[in-house]
Amino acid sequence: MALRNQPYIPLYVQDYLTDEKLSMCSWATQGVYIKLLCLLHKSEPYGTILLKQNDKQHLDFASNFASKIMKLLPIEKDILIAAITELVNEKCLTIEGDKLFQRRMVRDNEISIIRSETGKKGGLKTQKIAKAKIKAKPKAKYEYENINENDYKIQIEEFENFRKNYPGTKRGYEIEFENFKKKNKDWEKILPLLSDALNYQISFRIEKAKTGGFVPEWKNLSTWINQRCWEEEMQINKLPDETRRKQQGVTDFELATIVAKHFAND
Fold it and tell me: How far is CA 76 from the centre of its chain?
């Protein structure tokens, strides 16, 4: 399924919350940004707004794009012009010629198209590995016999989103996905739990840092999976008021940054 046809935006929450460039923008601009992301999600090409010749009624780019976007979003023109200008200046959005686009959305769409085309040709490496295993071990057929091609692609994408968001050291999605399936015969049931468990653990570490607790480095993703860490239960031990008062000079953003310092860029 093409990204623009999905009913949701693949928003990477941790990246959004810790985006230093976006944090430099005003609250009003950040609100407009969310609206623009929704519009970019439904645009063709994906993540891009194109100016046609009759859209070029002004000398500056922000006014031209604002005039076009106003037809699609109920936002006052002055607010929209200011937001577009600020987002471009802070490099949250990019303008090249007649195109206004969000780089990550464009990149994700390119990856999605490549995977889709490769899947149609039967060239996805993960599918080849699965077929080889089925051929070599007939008993393993049960693991895949109830999964059609489209469902399998969705599962790959769901695992890939989880893998991208995982803060610790990780390998390519093909290796990690194969390891996940190998270690868990019930991986189809576990897969929907991974992202929620990871988000909970990220939030837990932030809260633990607030209370002055020790926050260890993230395990390698394969270790996290092999040890079934999504099943971990966590509890924050509150510190005495005196200790908490000593920490009042640390902001939530600084604490989040401390926890996120081990995050690996995809």
Answer: 29
* C-alpha–C-alpha distance, residues 139 and 40, integer Å: 46
- Give the pair of three-digit tokens for residue 172: 């390519």
Q: Contact at 8 Å (CB) between 10 and 108?
A: yes
- Give the contacts of 89 (CB within 8 A, at least 6 positions apart): none
Nearby residues of 180 by Cβ (< 8 Å), 6 or more positions away: 159, 187, 191, 225
Residues 6+ apart with CB under 8 A from 54: none
d(CA 214, CA 216): 6
Q: Which helix (H) or strand (E) holds 95?
A: strand 94-96
Q: What CA–CA distance (Å, rounded) separates 153 from 119?
A: 8
- Integer-rounded Cα radius of gyration of the chain: 22
Q: How do the pLDDT tens digits run along the chain, 266 residues long? A: 566 677 877 777 887 888 888 889 999 999 999 888 998 898 888 989 988 888 787 778 888 888 888 888 888 889 999 999 999 999 899 988 888 998 988 888 888 888 777 766 665 566 677 776 666 654 444 344 455 677 888 888 999 999 999 999 999 989 999 999 999 988 989 999 999 989 989 988 888 888 888 889 999 999 999 999 988 875 544 444 444 444 445 454 554 555 455 443 44
The residue length of the chain stands at 266
Indicate the residue type of 129. Answer: I
- Residue range 3-106 forms a domain whose CATH class is mainly alpha
Structural domain spans, the chain: 3-106, 138-260
159 within 8 A of 198, measured Cβ to Cβ: no
Kindly state the helix (H) or strand (E) to which residue 23 belongs, with its residue range.
helix 20-23
Q: Name 96's bridge partners.
A: 99
pTM for this prediction: 0.42
